[in-house]
Amino acid sequence: MTLRALILDVDGTLAETEEAHRRAFNDSFASAGLDWHWTISDYRHLLKTTGGKERMAAHRATLGHGPTDAEIAALHRRKTARYGEILAEGGIALRPGVSNLITTARDRGLALAIATTTNRANVDALAMACWDQPAAEIFDVIAAGDDVAAKKPAPDVFLLALQRLALPPEQALAFEDSRNGLKSAQSAGLRVVITPSLYTQDEDFTGADLIVPDLADPGFATRFEQWLT
Question: How confident is the model at residue 229 (pLDDT cuts 50, 70, 90)?
Fold first, then answer.
C-alpha cells in the first residue's frame, strides 16, 4: 500500500536527549533533598523501563524504599520543568538526517506523527529547542505517553497515532531507536526503521525493516525512495 505517513519516536530518535533527561532527573532529586543520583550506567539500565514516573518507581523497587507514588508524581513534574530549562539553554540538535526527512515528508505530502513514551511538555520543549516552534506546528499528530494506558513495548501509543491519522499500519512507517520501541511499533503492525542511539546501540534489533546509523545514511535514502514508490 502507498506510504502516507511517518510516525517518529522522540528521545534518541529525533535527538540525543537522554543525557538531558538524566541531568534533569538528578537535578530534581537533589533539589528535593532525595539522595538518588543516576549514573550513565544506572540510566542505561533504567531506560529498559519506559516512562519517567515508571522509571523512578522501578528504581524505588530495586532499593526497597523511596518516595511514595504521590511524591514520584511531584518529582516528575519538577523534572519535566527542569528538562525544559535545560533544552532552552541550548546545545541540543536534531540527529543527522532528521531535518531533511521532515522536509522531504512535507514535500511528498506525507503526514507526520509522533509516538512517544515521554509527555507532551517534553515534546514541545524539544520542538522549541530544535525548530523554534511548538510541536503541533511540525507534526500533524502527537501521541504521548500520558495519552495511553500502557507504554512501550506495548503498542498503545503507535495504535493511538494510527487512529488519529485515520490510517492502517500498512500506510505508515515508524522510526525508533530502542528495542522497546521496535517491539511497540511492530506489535502495532508497522514497518520500522531503527537508528540506534547512544544509550541503545548495543540492543537487539532483530526483525527491524532497516537498521542504519542515522537518517543521513545513504542506505536509508535508497530504501525510503523504494517505500515511496
Answer: confident
Which residue bears the cell 542511539? 197
User: Would you state the cell numbers that stand for residue 101, as one nine-digit string?
Assistant: 526527512
Is 11 one of the catalytic residues?
A: yes
| Alpha helices, H only, the chain | 18-31, 40-46, 52-63, 69-88, 98-107, 120-131, 156-165, 179-187, 218-228
Give yes or no for a cis peptide into 168 (omega within 30° of 0). Answer: no
Quote the CA–CA distance of 126 and 113 in Å, as a whole number: 15
Q: Which of 11, 124, 156, 177 is catalytic?
A: 11
Q: Which residues, other chains included, contact 214 with Cβ-Cβ below 8 Å and sequence gap of 6+?
A: 95, 96, 97, 195, 220
Catalytic annotation present for 217: no
**Cell 506489535 -> residue:** 187
Full-model pTM:
0.94
pLDDT at 154 over 90: yes
The pLDDT of residue 18 is 94
